[in-house]
Write a structure and sequence with these properties.
The chain has helices at 2-23, 28-37, 40-49, and strands spanning 63-65, 72-74. With 92 residues, the chain is mainly alpha-helical. The radius of gyration is 20 Å and the shape is elongated. Bound molecules: zinc ion.
């Protein structure tokens, strides 16, 4: 009986690790497997130690988030097509 509870707790913790991994743009399923077969505590510590992964899809696609509505808009757009707010192009 304790074994069953232990496995359930392990799975629950592994799901937690997967959720944290997803929030930090890491591969959720890979981290779930690591936590399940390794140790959930180890997985959490590793995740927290790693820097937040920058989503590679958001890099250099010529777009950025609108400061008002947070939709992805063209970097050099002068007006946001979603909410109509004036947009200051970021030429950096
Ligand atoms: Zn907008």
């Amino acid at each position: 009986m304790f074994l069953v509870i232990g496995i359930l707790v392990l799975i629950a913790l592994s799901v937690g690790v997967a959720v944290i991994a997803h929030q930090r743009n890491r591969h959720a399923f890979a981290w779930f497997v690591i936590a399940l077969f390794g140790s959930p505590l180890m997985g959490i510590l590793f995740l927290l130690a790693l820097p937040i992964n920058v989503d590679p899809l958001n890099l250099n696609d010529g777009r950025e988030n609108c400061q008002r509505c947070n939709e992805r808009i063209r970097k050099y757009a002068k007006v946001c097509p979603f909410c109509g707010v004036e947009h200051t192009p970021n030429y950096s």
